[in-house]
Amino acid sequence: MWQELLTAIGLLLVLEGILPFLRPDLWREGVRQIARMEDRALRIAGLVSMIAGVILIYLIR
Q: Considering the entire predicted model, what is its pTM?
């Protein structure tokens, strides 16, 4: 189980690093836009992301 968790975290880090590596300017602008979002919008985006993740995990199991 720990191996799967660490593999998933490693994959997340690789995916998170692709955009800043390839297009740091685009990534920086995206972070600026996210910083300007209201808390409610960020919470909704986070909730949608978590639900999508749970559904994806459910579908592959």
A: 0.74
